[in-house]
Write a structure and sequence with these properties.
Layout (H helix, E strand, L loop, with lengths): L1 E9 L5 E8 L5 E5 L4 E8 L5 E3 L7 H5 L9 E2 L5 E2 L3 E4 L2 E4 L8 E2 L12 E5 L2 E8 L10 E9 L4 E10 L3 E2 L3 E2 L15 E4 L3 E5 L5 E7 L11 E2 L13 E5 L9 E7 L5 E7 L3 E5 L7 E2 L5 E2 L6 E5 L14 E2 L5 E11 L1
Antiparallel strand pairs: 1-2, 2-3, 3-4, 4-5, 6-16, 7-10, 8-9, 11-12, 12-13, 13-14, 14-29, 15-28, 17-20, 17-22, 18-19, 18-21, 21-24, 22-23, 23-29, 24-27, 25-26
The structure holds beta-D-galactopyranose (GAL).
Length: 342
């Protein structure tokens, strides 16, 4: 395992962004950058040893800074996913957030964690990113100190370890928003997906949970047995998966296998493990004509996300696993993206 630091560019206000390349003996390379604590590239071999970059993104920092960037590879927060009408209350105090996605708040607001330059350094075998979100930023209470450590194992596991503390009670939900394409490009509809979830959170037409947890049994939402992503997708609400699957709570805080995806031609596999109670499976339904890496143009359903997280709009659903964090508590979550071949 080795890590090299390099210069990645400067933001509009002149802040320097660093990139780090993590490599292992198997020849896997992962590039992460301090803007948005994001994953820039993941190069892994297929079953014939051919390398490809399996995440969507841009050639240079400029693309990530642009308004067309649909959160490629970024850490979303303070509250990833949606909060209904941008409102929630905590201990009787009402908080109001930017409504940046129809009537709702999405991915932490107008300048969420995906748009911040994080502090970043190499520490042992990991790249440690940290960031302090001031009290009141984007409408959220409490100064939140966050750390995200990236490490790569010799078993081709990219591990993301999150931790956070606050000085006032707040809500948080952190995720990584990588768009994967295990063929390195083209449609993802022929990728085979399996998600180990019996239920999902039913959403209204603005993607806010109604509160109902519905069984996937006998429906187009059932991904418990591996099937091509495209097999039932036309029956899915909105014409594509963009839903939170409810995972069994992990015992003893160990990450559990939430999802497995296989690209049948090259044989690359991705397994997603998490300590979180949910995973948002999003099939890139809103991608449209985005000029990406190496001249690629990304369109609808050419990338999929496995956003491990708490359930959407939890602050307005006391019956959902809580997203509250109080002073003295430490938020800790782990996500592993494990690559291989079949
Ligand atoms: C996803 C979300 C989608 C869409 C996307 C960004 O996390 O579930 O509905 O907003 O982010 O384009």
């Amino acid at each position: 395992m080795g890590i090299e630091q390099e210069y990645f560019g400067k933001t509009g206000d002149g802040r320097e962004v660093a990139a780090f390349v993590l490599s292992n003996a198997g020849g896997m390379h992962v590039k992460v950058a301090s803007y948005g604590a994001m994953i820039v590239s993941i190069e892994v071999p297929d079953r014939g040893g051919r390398m490809a970059d399996v995440v969507l993104g841009f050639d240079a920092l400029g693309g990530y800074l642009g308004k067309d960037n649909p959160y490629f590879g970024a850490c979303c927060g303070r509250y990833a996913n949606r909060i209904a009408k941008g409102r929630f209350s905590l201990d009787g105090v009402e908080y109001s957030l930017a409504q940046n996605n129809g009537p709702n708040a999405l991915h932490g607001g107008l300048a969420g964690f995906d748009k911040k330059v994080w502090d970043a350094k190499i520490e042992g075998d990991s790249v440690r990113m940290s960031f302090a979100s001031p009290d009141g930023e984007e409408g959220y209470p409490g100064t939140l100190k966050i750390e995200l450590a990236y490490s790569l194992s010799e078993e081709n596991e990219l591990k993301l370890e999150y931790s956070a503390t606050t000085d006032r009670k707040t809500v948080l939900n952190l995720t990584n928003h990588s768009y994967f394409n295990l063929a390195g490009g083209g449609s993802i509809l022929d990728h085979i997906v399996q998600i180990n979830a019996e239920r999902y959170t039913v959403v209204d037409d603005t993607a806010i949970p109604t509160g109902e947890l519905r069984t996937v049994d006998g429906t187009e939402m059932d991904l418990r047995q591996p099937i091509p992503i495209g097999q039932n997708i036309s029956s899915v609400q909105g014409g594509g998966y963009d839903h939170n699957y409810c995972l069994g709570q992990s015992a003893g805080g160990e990450p559990v296998l939430a999802a497995r995806v296989v690209e049948p031609r090259g044989g690359r596999t991705l397994e997603c493990l998490t300590t979180e109670p949910g995973v948002q499976f999003y099939t890139g339904n809103f991608l449209e004509n985005i000029g990406g890496k190496g001249g690629a143009v990304y369109n609808r359903q050419e990338g999929f996300c496995l956003e491990t997280q708490h359930w959407p709009d939890s602050p307005n659903h006391p019956e959902f696993p809580t997203t509250e964090l109080a002073p003295g508590e430490t938020y800790a979550q782990t996500c592993i993206y494990r690559f291989g071949t079949d």
